[in-house]
């Protein structure tokens, strides 16, 4: 995240004595990525952020892959998925590789602990529900259609508001970022980008929490979650500045591109990661040439696995999918509109479809937990005319 923010009280110079009105020295903490060479922020605490009183293993995180089978398109009716109550601990993995994992969660109650993913950046797509993501940098309200980006290592806790709640979660050990082709050499978003800095929301700073007690912090790292107990409230920050913090962007603030004839999927790209991209398919006018075929042309994914999460609307190239469906079209197999869908799209003027796509450049494995959601008839749907 290349955009600088400052909130609360910070000293004029970095790494210099910064004291409270009573003369107590504030504790400076750097949080960032890639050692000391990536994006970072400096936080100023009332107390030591490292002063945990105990550590203990809580659970392991090994994801079991489903048995391999013949390469084919796959459809998972994820709308039927039930998960446990925790936004942090009860995510159900569906698809994964070494670059990205895709899971769903339906949080039902607020966590009574704080959570830090020390393993991956997180992209939370809020399908439904409202709340506030708390962090040491402040409060970040979220609602339906929001992408919420949480860089690795930032402590968070979700306060849940109006529900029910359903999130699509993408985790990556690499860096999640705005595509380089949308930015100039200084990091500013270009006039031609499909969104601007005005569309991005950062945390709203709030006064520090000056409380002592036993505060549980759960840290995800390696293949385990560790519980640490901190003797004071972790959100005791009096001020911070930098370029590393949670932020949000609503999918409906993405400005879709429309051409005289059909444009390829890269025009929908919203984020990039190491080994994958995320795209947003939003309501938009269709192609305006009288002979244009709005439905996408068939294409062979010879270098990527395509995952689509269908949020809502009429999906012009697919039948048999529903809101909450997830489809996987693996590299090496051609795919495109099902029989009759291309013809039916001719003359249509607009679409109200809303979907999130994740394309990975290495093959995805299917998690064993996804098998109960699978539609076995989907691979044959291109061979049927009804």
Describe the fold and architecture.
A seven-stranded mixed β-sheet has the order 4-16-15-8-13-10-11, with no helix packed on it. Helix content is 1%, strand content 39%. It is built from one helix and 28 strands. It has one helix at 341-345, and strands at 5-8, 27-32, 40-45, 52-60, 74-77, 92-96, 101-105, 114-117, 121-128, 131-135, 138-142, 146-150, 155-160, 166-172, 212-221, 224-232, 237-242, 247-250, 269-273, 276-281, 284-285, 299-300, 305-312, 325-329, 334-335, 350-351, 354-360, 365-366. The protein is mostly beta strands. β19 (269-273) and β20 form a beta hairpin. It has a domain at 256-377: Jelly Rolls, CATH 2.60.120.
